[in-house]
């Protein structure tokens, strides 16, 4: 049986507390097994204590997910302005407000799904479901995070405020039901990556070619559809638990989506590379097409094998992809800054 890649809570395709189909849980007394009663008892033992509340708040922020927000640096880098202190500072602000907004969404989602999570063998260990964070406090922290994100954005620039308002509205819509709509859910998850890239440019008031945004948009769709394809494929082969909403997709349909998205991403990147040659009088942009295409084909191998998870996890586990990423970044750096 193939090894099943799952999220931190052990659920294939679980995002923002989605309902899942799962096999009957196997009873275990192993305190390291997140589905065991022993592990759950260890987590809930801190409920009602200050230490438990602090620990729960930090865990619920999910700081490991903030790595995705590094994408706000993409536009400043692609615009050749990443070494400008003022631009870099605005990019840092964009990173902070996106991290605040994303964490706020986690709080509201888990507060909404608290009762369902308590019936789940692993989600019951989430801070809110485990009682470490009372639901009223979760909503209060959510308001503070989302409100603070919008306030800081407004002080920085109205363009950034507009981007953050759209991001928060879309993500709340996803939590309140759009995640169950086929195709819409793919587009919403992919839009999160695109909005991060747009925020980096909006914060510093930078303008960049439309080809760049098309690359990010279809590249994101490629990764999201690939992740869904891997989830559906693995579930079919192993009988692993899976979100009910994923049943709307067949492996052939998701293969069709990620294949088209990959082709459009490569085409848009090639067009952008030629534009770089004209604008920067550098061949390094054209040379960067080589590692870009190889990286997409390499990533597609992971998708096809059914092991593609979160994009950042796929890249960090694949040393060849990491090397290709460094080469690609190096080529673009030489094109823009030499």
TrEMBL record:
Membrane spanning residue stretches: 89-108, 128-152, 158-176, 183-204, 253-275, 281-300, 320-337
Residues in coiled coil: none
A Pfam family of this chain: UbiA
Keyword terms of this UniProt record: Glycosyltransferase, Membrane, Transferase, Transmembrane, Transmembrane helix
Localization in the cell: Membrane
Domain of life from the UniProt record: Bacteria
Gene3D superfamilies noted in UniProt: UbiA prenyltransferase
InterPro entries: UbiA_prenyltransferase (IPR000537), UbiA_sf (IPR044878)
The keyword Ribonucleoprotein is annotated on this UniProt entry: no
Molecular-function annotations in GO: glycosyltransferase activity; transferase activity, transferring alkyl or aryl (other than methyl) groups
Example of a GO cellular component annotation carried by this entry: membrane
EC number, as in UniProt: 2.4.2.45
Topology within the bilayer: Multi-pass membrane protein
Protein's UniProt name: Decaprenyl-phosphate phosphoribosyltransferase
Organism listed in the record: Saccharopolyspora elongata
Origin organism lineage: Bacteria, Bacillati, Actinomycetota, Actinomycetes, Pseudonocardiales
């Amino acid at each position: 049986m193939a090894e099943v890649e799952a999220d931190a809570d052990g659920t294939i395709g679980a995002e923002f507390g989605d309902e899942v189909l799962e096999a009957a849980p196997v009873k275990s007394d192993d305190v390291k097994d997140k589905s065991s009663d022993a592990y759950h008892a260890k987590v809930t033992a801190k409920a009602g204590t200050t230490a438990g509340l602090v620990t729960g708040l930090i865990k619920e922020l999910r700081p490991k997910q903030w790595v995705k927000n590094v994408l706000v640096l993409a536009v400043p880098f692609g615009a050749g302005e990443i070494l400008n202190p003022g631009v870099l500072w605005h990019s840092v602000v964009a990173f902070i407000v996106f991290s605040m907004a994303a964490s706020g969404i986690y709080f509201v989602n888990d507060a909404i799904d608290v009762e369902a999570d308590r019936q789940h063998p692993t989600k019951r260990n989430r801070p809110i479901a485990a009682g470490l964070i009372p639901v009223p406090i979760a909503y209060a922290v959510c308001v503070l995070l989302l409100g603070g994100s919008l306030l800081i954005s407004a002080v920085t620039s109205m363009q950034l405020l507009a981007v953050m308002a759209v991001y928060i509205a879309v993500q709340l819509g996803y939590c309140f039901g759009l995640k169950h709509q086929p195709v819409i859910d793919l587009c919403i998850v992919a839009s999160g990556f695109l909005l991060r890239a747009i925020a980096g440019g909006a914060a510093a008031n930078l303008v960049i070619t439309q080809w760049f945004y098309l690359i990010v948009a279809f590249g994101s769709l490629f990764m999201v559809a690939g992740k869904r394809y891997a989830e559906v494929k693995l579930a079919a082969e192993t009988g692993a638990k899976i979100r009910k909403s994923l049943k709307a997709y067949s492996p052939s349909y998701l293969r069709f989506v990620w294949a088209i998205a990959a082709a459009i991403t490569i085409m848009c990147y090639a067009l952008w590379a030629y534009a770089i040659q004209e604008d920067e009088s550098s061949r390094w942009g054209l040379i960067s097409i080589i590692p870009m295409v190889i990286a997409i084909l390499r990533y597609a191998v992971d998708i096809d094998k059914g092991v593609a998870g979160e994009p950042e996890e796929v890249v960090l586990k694949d040393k060849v992809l990491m090397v290709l990423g460094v080469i690609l970044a190096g080529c673009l750096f030489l094109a823009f800054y030499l």
